[in-house]
Amino acid sequence: MNVMANVASQRSKEIEDALGMRFTLPDVFFEFIGYVDMLWLTDMFDALMFVPTVLLVLSHERPWRVVSRLLLAWGLASLIRITTVAITSVPDPRPTCEYATGNVFTTFTLHRCGDAIYSGHTLIFVICAMVWTSFAPKNLVGRALTTFVWALCIAGSLIVIANRAHYTIDVILAWYIAPGSWYTVAWFWYWHITKKGRLLKIEFPVEVGRHRDSDLPEKCQRRRVELGLMPDGTPYDPVTLYLNAARGSAELTPPPEEGQVYGPVCESGTLLPANGLVEEKDDASPEFDRIGERPQDHVVVAVRQGGPSQGQDTVGELGRGSSEGFGREDSFSEKQ
Predict the structure, then answer these.
(1) Mind listing the pLDDT tens digit for each residue in 85-116?
(2) Rounded to an integer, what distance in angstroms lies between the CA atom of residue 258 and that of residue 263?
């Protein structure tokens, strides 16, 4: 980033020398927001956004998950900025900026001329606000603090424009790219990391399916079913479990209580063979014609029917989204 910013600064100097003058491009917000020659305010807002975010990370139940999302989103947005900052050279909006001179690989200058498209300070503001939106406590205090952080984010963006550190288009682009990077990382992490059972110690440091200590066991079970993961984090293969149960080769587990569901959500991660008392529903066979494929609409379960002494263990199927509690009730923010 520093190298490309130096390249942009030197190109801006060459353009100014060729024109023989320094000028500023027209900007609508410059007409409404007066010039404030207090560049230190821009850096102060960086600290105002960064320090509370660090405190949130340190107090969070999954700190490494928050840090990984923050760094990946910030890195992706910064990579995009590397490709834009030196491609199109624009006159710097601040009349007192300094040009970067010397070797582009070793020179380091804060607030250099030409370092325009797009605003790196606003990028920090918005990424920190996105951290609070996704990971702040889901209570009144958490929502109030999140609202306050977003207010700081908006105020910091206006300060950047007032200091003429960037054009308005630079700030707006940062507002577009930062949330886009944040949710792109969230999508990739969910489908290519969590769904495939990778790095589960970062996503679920305590128990697979548990985001918070306050999560109920039923919610953890629903997450495991939706992710297709067993309680130990291994991918869930309903066909193998079904066949093992039918052949009596599955690991024996204590008999379930009445109404208790075994299968993909049981603590041991195995189906109950039931010692020859397994019954197969007639309409379940089409779901398992092709061995090795996961049925898309049903989950194999073993349910204890009747009392613990005289009941019968049955292997059947339970549709996703049924009334027994296997519906998709987790919001996208909970998957994050």
Answers:
(1) 878 778 888 877 777 777 777 777 777 777 88
(2) 15
The first and second tokens of residue 240, run together, are 């193998």
pLDDT in tens, 42-74: 889 989 999 999 999 998 888 898 999 999 999
Short-list 313, 99, 66, CA closest to 211: 66
| Residue 295: both structure tokens together | 């049925």
* Owner of token pair 């919610």: 219
Q: Which residues pair with 302 in a beta bridge?
A: 262, 315
Q: Work out the end-to-end distance of the chain between its first and last CA atoms, rounded to an integer number of angstroms.
A: 28
Tokens of 161: 């424009």
DSSP state, residue 108: -
Q: How are strands ordered across the β-sheet holding 298-305? A: 261-262, 298-305, 312-319
Residues 6+ apart with CB under 8 A from 111: 39, 42, 94, 97, 98, 165
Cα Rg of the chain, angstroms: 28
- The residue among 213, 216, 214, 235 whose CA lies nearest residue 224 is 235
DSSP character string of 165-195:
SS-HHHHHHHHHHHHHHHHHHHHHHIIIIIT
CA 211 from centroid of its chain's CA atoms: 13
Q: Which residue carries 């019954």 as its tokens?
A: 279
Q: Which residues contact 227 (CB under 8 A, 6 or more apart)?
A: 194, 195, 209
Which residue's structure tokens are 């049981």?
266
196 CB-side CA count, 13 A: 7
* Number of residues that this document lists for the chain: 336
Decide: residue 127, CB within 10 A, 0-12 exposed, 13-18 middle, 19+ buried: buried
Calpha distance 173→176 (Å, rounded): 5
What pLDDT sits at residue 222?
Answer: 83
Q: Which residues pair with 319 in a beta bridge?
A: 298
The SS3 of residue 305 is strand
